Amino acid sequence: MTNTISSFENRNNGEKLDVKLSYVIQKQSIMFIHEKKK
């Protein structure tokens, strides 16, 4: 969680933010697919 906060605070490093954001989106979509399988 601290990694997410630090990446959001560091606005100069846009790439780090994009990577974190895409990771979160991937994680959510994986969880969504997993829920559908049940």
Poorly predicted spans: none
Strand percent estimate:
under 5%
- Tell me about the biggest sheet? none
SS elements, strand count = 0
Name the helix and strand elements from N-terminus to C-terminus, one letter apiece: HH
The total tally of domains equals 1
Instruction: Give the mean pLDDT.
Output: 71
Protein name: DNA topoisomerase I
Structural description of this entry:
It comes from Bacillus thuringiensis. This is DNA topoisomerase I. With 38 residues, this protein is an all-alpha fold. The protein has one domain (2-37). It is built from two helices and no strands. It has helices spanning 2-9, 14-37. The N and C termini lie far apart (28 Å). The model has no long low-confidence stretch (mean pLDDT 71).
Note the topology.
Elements: H1 2-9, H2 14-37
Key terms:
38 residues; 2 helices; mainly alpha
